[in-house]
Design goal:
The protein is mostly beta strands and 302 residues long. The chain is 6% helix and 23% strand.
Length: 302
């Protein structure tokens, strides 16, 4: 195994077996590459695929897919026994081995169960020694079942197994209750404009409406205001319109043609000069008068 940085990458025997399994998967799923590239980050290993590269902070490593036999290392010291794990599921029955020679020793009595000792510290994992020769002896008679030992500590959760083949399709279940109506989706795009339909038949001619405009317009004079040589403002109201007439405007004129009379306000009003936009009968004005007499008038129409 080759490292591309100054610090080395240490893998346990279990890590090597896991990587070897990944390498075998890559070899069977591709064109049998000669090496496998991976990235290591704080002990986690991520196998690269194709042209992928290591991310920032990851350690690149590579190793040959082709197995190479190394020298058999010395057998490591046997570590102390760890705590008993939970009983695993019963495995499938293997094929029956060859019959070995009959054993000669008599079966001893079952000894009493000793007290449970304190759990020792987990020893360091020793190197994997060479596989010994397979025994050929005849299985001895089954011993008597001993009393159940104390429950061991729960072992670590094993890795997820491969997904099994899909089972046969089950019978169709009963139709479930109708779910709640979901929220209304977004408004779709506006469709193309449809073809113009045929022209409908001409409707009946409606009744003739009332004639528009005014039939008559007249000027009705009203209040007056006289000047005394100094400019002064006055509110004066034009004459009242009769029933059926509508005041549409108003104005003022002065008896002295040389006097400059100016209008400050002009609005529809009632007979007292108050603003009346809904039911006016007169037209009021606020004017400035210096000389002469100013007379207000209302324009009445119907």
């Amino acid at each position: 195994m080759t490292s591309f940085a100054s610090r080395s990458v240490v893998l346990t025997a279990a890590g090597v077996l896991a990587i070897a399994g990944i390498a075998g998967f890559v070899d069977s799923a591709s064109a049998k590459p000669t090496s496998v590239r991976a990235c290591v980050d704080d002990g986690d290993i991520r196998v690269l695929n194709g042209k992928q590269d290591c991310k920032a902070g990851e350690q690149p490593i590579t190793w040959s897919v082709k197995p190479q036999a190394g020298p058999i290392g010395p057998r490591g010291a046997t570590g102390p026994a760890g705590p008993a794990g939970a009983t695993g599921e019963t495995g499938a029955v293997g094929p029956q081995g060859p019959v070995g020679p009959a054993g000669s020793g008599a079966q001893g009595p079952v000894g009493p169960v000793g007290p449970k000792g304190d759990t020792g510290d987990t020893g360091a994992t020793g190197a994997i020694g060479p596989m010994g020769p397979m025994g050929m002896g005849m299985p001895g008679p089954a011993g008597a079942t001993g009393p159940q030992g104390p429950k061991g500590d729960t072992g670590d959760t094993g890795s997820t197994g491969l997904t099994g083949p899909q089972g046969p399709k089950g019978d169709t279940g009963d139709t479930g209750a109708t779910g709640l109506t979901g929220p209304q989706g977004p408004k779709g795009d506006t469709g193309d404009t449809g073809a113009t339909g045929p022209q409908g038949t001409k409707g009946d001619t409606g009744a003739t409406g009332a004639a528009g405009g005014f039939s008559s317009v007249r000027y009705v004079t009203g209040g007056t205001a006289s000047g005394d040589g100094a400019v002064a403002t006055h509110r004066i109201v034009g004459g009242a319109c009769t029933t059926g007439e509508q005041p549409i405007g108003g104005g003022v004129y002065n008896s002295d043609p040389t006097d400059w009379t100016y209008t400050l306000q002009s609005y529809p009003s009632d007979g007292g000069g108050a603003l009346s936009a809904s039911t006016p009968t007169n037209w009021a004005l606020v004017v400035g008068v210096t000389n002469g007499t100013a007379t207000a008038y209302t324009i009445c129409a119907k």
